[in-house]
User: Fold this.
Amino acid sequence: MATFTGFVRFDSATFTGAAWFQSATFLGPAFFDSVTFIEPASFSSATFTGDTRFESATFTRAAWFDSATFTGDTASFSSATFTEDAWFESATFTGDTASFSSATFTGDARFHSATFTGDTWFESATFTRAAWFESATFRAEFVCEGVSIGEDALFQRAVFERASSFGPLECAGRVLLSGAEFAGPVVVTVAARRVECRRTRWSATAELRLRYATVDFSHAVFEYPLTIAAEAGPFVLTDGRAMAEQGLVGAPDTVVRIASLRGVDAAHLVLAGVDLSRCLFVGTVHLDQLRLEGACVFDRVPPPAWVGRGPRFAVRRTLAEEQHWRAGRPGAARGWNTAVLGAGGVGPAQLEPVYRALRKAFEDGKNEPGAADFYYGEMEMRRHDREGTTRTERGLLHGYWALSGYGLRASRAVYWLAATMLATVVLLMGFGIAQDTPKQQATGTIPAGGGKATFEIDKDDPQNPSSDRFTGERFEKALNVTLNSVVFRSSGQDMTTAGTYIEMASRLTEPVLLGLAVLAVRNRVKR
Assistant:
């Protein structure tokens, strides 16, 4: 437990053997600028009461600063090189500034449970492997602009009390912020393969601007507006340079994907330009107040194919949980996604309110065409829900789906209208149109002694033709009756008894189908 009083300076020195300063106390400034440590260097539990500098120092073997205490105004490791693991676990920096700017960590950098009271600078630092900051506490600014991390960046349960920014930084692996707490307004700018914010607490407004990342935001807590946005181009640093993204070369794309919003209160959440095709929504609170900006992408049903009893007409946006549920059903079509982790155990009863909430969110955003897909999904879940929907209601929903796709598939209603009109024409030609126009007949009696005569004028009953039913003339008459039925008008054509009932049925069904087609067109194009 050596004690160094006064100014200690080892500038440009070389320690060829192990440097052991464990539990040492430096009562004045301690400068180790450009020092080279050939063998392991240990400053575990050391105390530095004055300004401390290890600027441009080189640690060719492991360096231990665990449980060290830096109480001077400045503790600087700027441009230092740590060739092997660097241990700063439980270290305490109580001065105004702790700087690791432009430092290089070739091995793991471990800052578990470290405490930084003043501003902390990691600007342009390079971590070849993982950077460990689990349970670290940053009481002032945390500057990590231009940081490059080769593997994972671990900030689980870290506390950022006054950090106004986090990044821009580039991470070739995962940025783990699960359980972390941001006490003040902050802008997080990260380019990484994955960002995990499970149970992260945001105590003020926040903005996450991301590239490449898949984001797990489940059970995050925030009471103020929070935005997750995809950044179109590389982040720009304060000096005007675009941040290099060398660690992400080979990534399939720069798309930002949301993996989960389960357990989140979405009342203050804004998503901008992100991919939601694999996002888990079941369990999200106040989903109807979610704001979607820009081109937010959802998954879609597989391409139309013959499945089971008939064709699948709808090409619409769907949720990941529905994809997983449909893929697990007997006789499911190919193309439904089953690879979404955590989507199991969810069925129509759980998905119906999710679709309804998202529909309202789109409607509140004045995006009626977008809301139509989620209305379709809501109705689909009601149609398949055997627990919350009665058999009668399911029957009506099946009919509504088959006839017009819940009032959203105009082509389906038009097909049915055309088929009904064709059937009406054929039936009228075969059974409904009379062979000839019945002639009027007058019958009566003349009293024997003369006087007033009384006559009754009547018609013969219309008769079906015994042959030549399908002629051009009869087709024209049948078409005329059918077209008038579409607009709920009577053609005035002489009909057989069967033809009268056929016309009545067509005047009931065809206007309804026409109305469904018009309604479907309106629902798809209105703004």
